[in-house]
Amino acid sequence: MGMLLSGRGLITSLIFFLLKFSTAVDIPLSVQQVPTIIKQSKVQVAFPFDEYFQIECEAKGNPEPTFSWSKDDKPFDLSDPRIIVSNNSGTFRIPNEGHISHFQGKYRCFASNKLGIAMSEEMEFIVPNVPKFPKEKIDPLEVEEGDPIVLPCNPPKGLPPLHIYWMNIELEHIEQDERVYMSQKGDLYFANVEEKDSRNDYCCFAAFPRLRTIVQKMPMKLTVNSLKHANDSSSSTEIGSKANSIKQRKPRLLLPSPESGSESSVTILKGDTLLLECFAEGLPTPQVDWSKMGGDLPKERETKENYGKTLKIENVSYRDKGNYRCTASNFLGSAIHDFHVIVEEPPRWTKKPQSGVYSTGSSGILLCESEGEPEPTIKWRVNGFPIERNPFSGDVISPREISFTNVQPNHTAVYQCEASNVHGTILANANIDVVDVRPLIQTADEENYATVVGYSAFLHCEFFASPEAIVSWQKVEEAKPLEGRRYHFHENGTLQINETTEEDAGSYSCWVENAKGKTAVTANLDIRNATKLRVSPKNPRVPRSHTLELHCESKCDSHLKYSLKLSWSKDGEAFEINGTEDGRIIIDGANLTVSNVTVEDQGVYSCSAHTALDSTAAMTQVTVLDVPDPPENLHLSERQNRSVRLTWEAGDDHNSNISEYIIEFEGNREEPGRWEELTRVQGEETTVMLSLAPYVRYQFRVIAVNEVGRSQPSQPSDHHETPPAAPDKNPQNIRVQASQPKEMIIKWEPLKPMEQNGPGLEYRVTWKPQGAPVEWEEETVTNHTLRVMTSAVYAPYDVQVQAVNHLGSGPEPQSVTLYSGEDYPDTAPVIHGVDVINSTLVKVTWSTIPKERVHGHLKGYQVNWWKTKSLLDGRTHPKEVNILRFSGQRNYGMVPSLDAFSEFHLTVLAYNSKGAGPESEPYIFQTPEGVPEKPTFLKVIKVDKDTATLSWGLPKKLNGNLTGYLLQYQIINDTYEIGELNDINITTPSKPSWRLSNLNATTKYKFYLRACTSKGCGKPITEESSTLGEGKYAGLYDDISTQGWFIGLMCAIALLTLILLTVCFVKRNKGGKYSVKEKEDLHPDPEVQSVKDETFGEYSDSDEKPLKGSLRSLNRDMQATESADSLVEYGEGDHGLFSEDGSFIGAYAGSKEKGSAESNGSSTATFPLRA
Length: 1171
Prior knowledge:
The chain is mostly beta strands and about 1150 residues long. About 5% of the residues lie in helices and about 45% in strands.
């Protein structure tokens, strides 16, 4: 026994050695080889609606194969003119021209050359006939009610599948049920007929879907005679009952037919569907049951159809063979039939013979094994002929294998193994090619390859060699075979370089050598940089409903940019290229935007990059944050009068730790349902001891808070009621509301409902004059106000308010000092004097009134003044009172913005919270002269080559007696240099114009004009103009200045200039620059008056700016609002306030006229510079 096992092991080892030694590879067509069939037809059906029928057979070989066919094992003539043969192929067509039935049969293709013959499997060409029912006369059928009957169909033969239907002439299906059944063959069975089964149009239809054909059998007539008409003298009930009793019978099988006996055999192929049918006649209608003898019906694969008359088992296997029993029964008995099911199978390969390439002198083996039921018979052929006709010396032939040693070139052939049983035949070709050639490398020389750093490189060197060859690789510049763990050599010659580096770039040689010679090719390898990705932000945490924005930053080799493609996925599932249809997810190349983020958007987002050589991915974990779920399972414990412990369970925090819990309560008796915050605890805690107030029916709820926000409130806890108690606190904020003299209206903040501690809340108010040795007066009220009459005006009182309820009083109250109601001051201050500071500012001093005459809290003093007349023209002014208030206890104040050279009246009064007291006697004072305002306009009305005539208007405010004008001018050509300043004193105030002479021709001048009084000259008004040049145009103005059209033109120019200046002014206020400003910077005014007194500080006028090269730095930071006309700095408010060195704090109100400051209080202005 041991020797036998050893022998079998030796044979098995030899087989594996021989199989390995015979290389099953594709032989290049350049090498001689036997034919190989590469394409062939299977079953071909000649449908009548097809144009032609093609039977295919394609093969390769060297020399090129020739083709021949057999039909029904007889040679088939391809030269038949009724067929069309393809060039260089065995394929031919049969046109559908009416003679195709001649070609029906089984075909086999043979491809041959001088080395062998390949043989195809048998293919069948089927020419189906058009199925028809025979023309026949069908006799009517007549049966009695309750009898069985069978209506035969006998469908014609045709191309399967076949579908049979029973219908009437109206194409309505004959209803089938437990009593009526159509068999697999198409016959219609009635277990017992009823009167309603009578009809004359039973039609059997046979449908052949592959032929697109339906045929109909001639209608059959069935008449059912009712037994109730047999005896007309009897009642129908009696007759029907008698008939039933006569016709009732036990079951009798109609299917399978009674001729088959009580048992029958059924053969089914493995994998097919088994259908067993059983139908019995009888009355009542029999019921059919199925069982398997000695086993169970296969679950999940068996079904009962047609009211149990058909047993269906799908995908039959060998374990389904055996005996199946059908039992038909009613209450009178039963009938049985046994089916002996045999499962068989067509042949199938278990070991299919494999083609092989051998060298001379080698050994080989062909294996051929198949399975089937019955067991297949195996036959060998060589080049299509039985192997017995082609023996080779030394060959060993058995049904399952052929082995041969010392193979010679004449062994080259095509071997066929054919396995067959009653259910079919299978054929396999195995090529034996005996070849002795030098290695043929099939990969092209100088192929270029590329990979990226870190990846594997594959350099191909596909070859064919017989005898067996050895492959070696080397780097061209090193000229030695490659060695090392990073190099892997595949059997097909491919070199695999793992974990490539930049040093691996270069040229490689592949050498293939066998006993017949050696061959080589060169391959070039280029190493690219690996693609890198980075997704930002990394692992973002996004609140729900916010927007998620991800960016995929990629970096790849410049040679690979053209092939770089980016894609996005979430949790391994790719997004569409453009995102989602609803637009919530948008993909724009490297950017992914998710709007209105939901919890479902949480996950791992991956950006993938694919190039021609590599692929990589970068991931980021997106966490969606949301408010916590509400806490759950609130529980109260350790209940006390003033405390209780609340415990709860935390809800889901939705990826954001809970930072704190808010405990709210509801228990306000006056506002039920209103929840208020009670306390907060850290997020780690889930229990808290709560301090409670008396006389409250508490209910609690908890809100969780995380970085996203607050959760919904939890469900409320159980109620907890605390007993009543005396108040714990007294009212706060005790005060006096505005009241009448000798009266106090006392008010306080009432206790909140949660502070009352019990029912019956009242307030006990006590009071007495401060410091007086008298008893406290007392009154108890329920609201939070009390009116008390006093004996004195604005007298201090000690007041106490205590909370009281039915259970007692609150703590001992604290006294507060309140004053009784105020009255108006009853005396006026006395004005000591008015000191004139300058033409627009005076200082007023007065005596304060005694404290007892204030009758309240002194808030300050009020100065009233009004202008009575102008000293310039003596005209009186209507009384327009100006008011300025000064807070606090003080005896002086500064009155600004007065008109110069005018007479004023002034009064002073005191005021308290109640109101103002009486005014003092009016004090009369006069303001001195000041400098005038600038002239209203300055125009150059006429120019010549050396003269210019200027005209101007009087200042709006003269501020004194006008003594004349100061006219100045200088050259201002478009350079940084300016000419000498020239002065002209005009001592005639009434003269409105002046003619300048001795000017330079074609020269630009700037003119400055100031109005003057005895106090000095005011601000200048400026104008620029150019003199004319030499020639005939010198007297142009003399000729045209008086023309009407010229005057109109000048007006239009003036209007446009005004619009331009307005635009420029707006631009300058916005910080823009324009040419007019630059020109002013270029030619500054010649003088600057800058006066700074202790009262006013510094002021600037926005109309004139310092010029380049002049006083650029003077007052650069001053604001336009800092003018002498402003009263902000004099009155009460948040603006500038004077200090005690002669300045004041006051509030100016209701000014009717604004005064102009004179030189020591005027705005800083720009003046011409002396050249």
